[in-house]
Design brief:
By secondary structure, the chain is mostly beta strands. The protein is built from four helices and 16 strands. An eight-stranded antiparallel beta barrel has the order 9-10-11-12-13-14-15-16. A four-stranded antiparallel beta sheet has the order 5-6-7-8. The chain has a two-stranded antiparallel sheet with strand order 1-4. The termini are far apart. The mean pLDDT is 90.
Length: 239
C-alpha cells in the first residue's frame, strides 16, 4: 500500500480500462494523482485492505473512542466509514474510484469477516460482485451470470412479438420500461436510456446478455417481471 505515482506495468501494476462496443479501451490520459490525493491516489491490494480493516476493528490502530466515532452512522456516514449490509449482515466500509479503477472494502463485526474488491476494468456492477461473493462465502444459493446463451435462442416472428409491446411501470419502481420491435427483434428501453435488443430464451422470457437483464412477460395479465444482475424481481404492469 502506497501513495500512487505513474503506473509501471513492468512492476505488475495495473492499467485502467473502460468498455466500449465490446472492446476494452486503455484510459489515456490518466489523472495526475497530486490532485485527488487521499480521495483516490492511494494504491493498495485486496489483501492489504482486509488486513487493514481487521486491524482497525481489532483495536490495533485507533482507540475505542475513535472507532465509535468512525462507526457512528446515525447521520448517514461515520468518520471515514459508511454502513452497509450483505446477506442480512451489517458491516462498515468505504468505496473508491478514479479513472477506470474501482474499489470497495467492508468489515462485518459480528462475523469477524473482511471483504475487499479492486478492479481496473469494470463490466458488471461492483455491488453485484460483492453481493455474490458474500453470498457464496456464507453458503447461499447462487447462479453464475450468463454472458452468452447456454442453449439455442427461440426464433419468433414479428407478429408474435406484438403481445409484448408497450410501456410497463410500477409505483414502487423508478423507471418505465418501453418494449418496441424492429422486424423480428424485440427491444427494451428504460426511462432516459437507450434501447437495447433482448432475445427470446424461452416462452415469454427474454434476456439481454450484454445488459444482464431478464424480462419475463405474462401477456394475458399484461405484466412484466424485470430481473437485473440478480437483484429482486420487479413486477411492472402495462400502462
Amino acid at each position: 500500500t502506497q501513495y500512487g505515482k505513474e503506473i509501471q506495468p513492468e512492476q505488475n501494476e495495473a492499467l485502467p480500462y473502460y468498455l466500449e462496443n465490446s472492446q476494452w479501451i486503455l484510459i489515456e490520459p490518466r489523472s495526475d494523482l497530486s490532485g485527488p490525493r487521499g480521495a483516490g491516489a492511494v494504491v493498495s491490494t485486496p489483501s492489504d485492505l482486509t488486513v487493514f480493516y481487521t486491524a482497525l476493528f481489532s483495536g490495533e490502530l485507533v482507540s475505542d473512542e475513535s472507532l465509535k466515532k468512525m462507526t457512528d452512522i446515525s447521520t448517514g456516514m461515520g468518520m471515514g466509514l459508511g454502513g452497509g449490509a450483505f446477506s442480512n449482515k451489517n458491516g462498515f466500509g468505504h468505496d473508491g474510484g478514479i479513472d477506470g479503477f474501482q474499489s470497495f472494502a467492508l468489515y462485518m463485526p459480528t462475523e469477524n469477516v473482511s471483504i475487499a474488491y479492486c478492479s481496473n476494468a469494470v463490466n458488471l456492477s461492483f455491488y453485484y460482485i460483492l453481493k455474490s461473493a458474500v453470498g457464496i462465502y456464507f453458503g447461499e444459493d447462487y447462479d453464475f451470470p450468463e454472458f452468452e446463451p447456454s442453449k439455442p435462442l427461440l426464433s419468433l416472428t414479428s407478429s408474435q412479438l406484438d403481445a409484448y409491446l408497450g410501456t410497463y411501470s410500477s409505483s414502487d419502481f423508478p423507471l418505465k420500461i418501453t418494449i418496441t420491435k424492429e422486424d423480428n427483434q424485440l427491444f427494451a428501453r428504460a426511462t432516459g436510456q437507450g434501447a437495447f435488443p433482448v432475445d427470446a430464451v424461452e416462452k415469454d422470457t427474454f434476456k439481454s446478455f450484454k445488459e444482464m437483464i431478464n424480462l419475463t412477460f405474462d401477456p394475458e395479465k399484461e405484466t412484466l417481471l424485470l430481473d437485473q444482475l440478480g437483484y429482486p424481481n420487479h413486477k411492472l404492469s402495462k400502462e
